[in-house]
Automatic annotation (TrEMBL):
The keyword Nucleotide-binding does not apply. One of its GO terms (molecular function) is exonuclease activity. Residues 1-268 form the 5'-3' exonuclease domain. 5'-3' exonuclease acting preferentially on double-stranded DNA. The keyword Metal-binding does not apply. SUPFAM superfamilies: 5' to 3' exonuclease, C-terminal subdomain (SSF47807), PIN domain-like (SSF88723). It comes from the Bacteria. This is 5'-3' exonuclease.
């Protein structure tokens, strides 16, 4: 089981009231919400391995060099490239990291890469079934029925997620999982600063990718005077040539990230009990931590 950790703690932050606080009054809603999420996931799915994948670099420079607008609207400090995060969430992230480490849950991030890329690399290397837990549709491109890779997409929480397999992607978007990245590049994504192609929305992108197979096929059709594309669509695709030259590399999840050594085994007992107890007392982790510890113990 691969956790898109930031996706989950953002969801926890907005789903759990800020009135959930540590003894000193600091909000810990994201911390406790994430612990409850993991407890439920472990209890419901009994994963053989568990990895909390982290954004060591939420906006990698190599992606920005290809498309400067990539996630640009999320930058809080242009000089530092710092992501805009709610004031009461930022202080909770180091607590989350410390608690995961004390528990012994593998936490993996790689400089220069997003959590998506860590997930893509781990999924590519996996010998068995993989569940990716994320609220980010970009990871749908990794779904692979033959290899047993699926996405658990949370609704309100993680207790009843949408199970996204190849059939679900085809039913929802009209494209195959292997076509999802090309579909996303054509359509664009304002939330990631990807402009897409003028005049091509979700339905048209799906239609084009389905008809011509992939982005290269769509671009070839735009240059073919005998294809069924309208003159306006040909012009728009031609005008977006610079974007389409680089978009696939930006949209595609990396699968060759140099990962550090780590142990993905689900811990049945805390790796650092004293440190965990101190964190529990300082941050008032209460029932959330108790429930996670019970789930981990039962999984062992």
């Amino acid at each position: 089981m691969l956790l898109d950790t930031a996706s989950l703690y953002f969801r926890a932050y907005f789903g759990v009231p800020e009135s959930v606080k540590a003894p000193d009054g600091t909000p810990v809603n994201a911390v406790r919400g994430l612990l409850d999420f993991i407890a439920r996931l472990v209890a419901d799915h009994s994963p053989a391995g568990l990895v909390a994948c982290m954004d060591a670099d939420w906006r990698p420079q190599w992606r920005v060099e290809l498309i400067p607008s990539y996630k640009a609207h999320r930058v809080a400090d242009a000089s530092e490239g710092i992501e805009e995060v709610p004031d009461t969430l930022s202080p909770q992230v180091p607590v989350i990291e410390a608690v995961l480490d004390a528990l012994g849950i593998a936490r993996v991030g790689v400089p220069g890469y997003e959590a998506d890329d860590v997930i893509g690399t781990l999924a590519a290397r996996a010998a068995g079934r993989v569940d990716i837990v994320t609220g980010d549709r970009d990871l749908f491109q990794l779904v692979d029925d033959a290899r047993g890779v699926r996405v658990l997409f949370p609704r309100k929480g993680v207790g009843d997620p949408d199970v996204v397999d190849e059939a679900a992607i085809e039913e929802r978007y009209g494209v195959r999982a292997r076509q999802y990245a090309d579909f996303a590049a054509l359509r664009g994504d304002p939330s990631d600063g990807l402009p897409g192609v003028k005049g091509i929305g979700e339905k048209t992108a799906a239609q084009l990718v389905s008809e011509y197979g992939d982005l290269a096929g769509v671009r070839a059709a735009a240059k073919d005077p005998f294809s069924r594309l309208t003159p306006a669509r040909r012009r728009n695709i031609a005008a977006a040539a610079d974007y389409l030259d680089v978009a696939p590399a930006v949209v595609a999840v990396a699968k060759d990230v140099p990962l550090p050594a780590f142990d993905p085994a689900v811990p049945s007992a805390p790796a650092a009990p004293a440190a965990l107890e101190s964190l529990a007392q300082t941050w008032g982790l209460g029932g959330s931590l108790t429930r996670l510890l019970a789930a981990l113990a039962a999984s062992g």
